[in-house]
Amino acid sequence: MRIYLDVSCLNRPFDDQSQPRIRLESEAVTLILQQIDAGHWRQVSSQIAEIEIAANPDRERRGRVAALLPLRRDRIRLSPGMFTRAARLQKLGFRPADALHIAAAEALRVDVLLTCDDRWCRLAARKRAQLAVPVANPLAWLKENADALDA
Fold this sequence. Notes:
Helix content: 40-55%
Oligomer: single chain
Number of domains: 1
Radius of gyration: 15 Å
Shape: globular
Number of strands: 5
Number of helices: 8
Strand content: 5-15%
Largest sheet: 5 strands, parallel
Structural class: alpha/beta
Mean pLDDT: 96
Low-confidence stretches: none
CATH architecture: 3-Layer(aba) Sandwich
């Protein structure tokens, strides 16, 4: 299973854990990363994730989040085709960075793109017929795919 975690997911373990929802999403992301580390699933990402992480002004946090990215061989560089696809996705209502994440995830042919962004998840659900990859919240996805933990 190929999983694309957006930057909101990679940030989640470092967010304020006093809120129950954030703590649960953080635990879901951590469990997903453990499955990846164990070799059960494969994490992939893209240059847009690197760009977003590099924009974080907090040096320590930037380093922690960057450490959760997959190896370089599992990160795709942005291509002209991805920018073209992202422009079409923006016309559907996706924000520019989100559109690039989707375009990269589609190019990588992932099984799922995970994000903690509710707005993005709702829009992706409404536009799912126009997307080549499913977009889901990590906690909701993990609940729906609990049997995949045994794989």
